[in-house]
Amino acid sequence: MKKYLVANWKMNPVDLQEAENILSGYLEINLQSDIELVVCPPRIFLRNLIEKSGGKFFWGTQNCFWEDIGAYTGEVSVLQVKKLGAKYVIVGHSERREFLGETDEMVNKKIKAVFLQKLVPILCIGGGKEAKNKKADALKIVKGQLFSALHSLPARTIKNQEFLVTYEPPWALSTVSGNQSAPAKKVAEVSYFIFKLLTKTYGHQVGKQIPILYGGSVNAENIQKFSKKLNLAGFLVGGASLNPKEFAKMVDLME
Ligand code: 13P
Q1: Are the C-beta atoms of residues 6 and 40 closer than 8 Å to each other?
Q2: What CATH number is associated with residue 130?
Q3: Is 173 in the pocket of ligand 1 (CB under 6 A)?
Q4: Is there an atom of ligand 1 within 6 Å of 238 CB?
Q5: For the chain, how many structural domains are there in total?
Q6: Strand, helix or coil at 212?
Q7: Alpha helix locations (H) across 93-164?
Q8: Which of 96, 217, 223 to mutate to test the pocket of ligand 1 (most atoms within 8 A of CB)?
Q9: Which residues are catalytically annotated?
Q10: Range of the domain at 45
């Protein structure tokens, strides 16, 4: 199975010059053919960065709106980011659930819009206010968010289109935890649980093809703890992706 390293730059950096500097560092990365490197910068930089990247990476956006066009002040549609050249859309990130009040219903509408435009959703589950407490029932949260995100989506969509799921507990984000990732045992337990839910719902053949990623303080120091031992298809990386040298190291260590 293909592996994924997804860079979520979040609301960084402050200007295009700096964004281009990070991109220059990325262009030095020695990319193996089985790794899909996906860059999700702030949307305002997307066009410029895609143009400068020479087709080296895949591109994504950190959010989207569910309508294609219309009176939705401040929103950007899946169709608009598709026309810019994005292939992936992060949906339901824990920061959006927590700070922007993104609900399961909104996540469901967004994921449908992404599928409709034939882009690839990177669905984030395990986040939100209720999940902030480390002792919260992660399996219950993940199950609820997964099924509401996929609510009323035909099984043939899941079967025929690319779709990624990421487990991202909010208490493990580098900005919250000071680089304390979730324990490997926890990631193993939750990712296996997601795998079981997917295979039970869509059948083994389909379910096992859906890549499951982990996000939360993954960096060059700890990536092997996850990539060597766990059955993950890749990682969603925030803070460490802003440092191209460290990110390049992570690509090397992902083999
Ligand atoms: P960090 O890697 O900074 O913890 O962020 C993870 C994340 O939120 C990626 O979407």
Answers
A1: yes
A2: 3.20.20.70
A3: yes
A4: yes
A5: 1
A6: strand
A7: 94-99, 104-116, 138-149, 155-160
A8: 217
A9: 93, 168
A10: 3-53+61-253
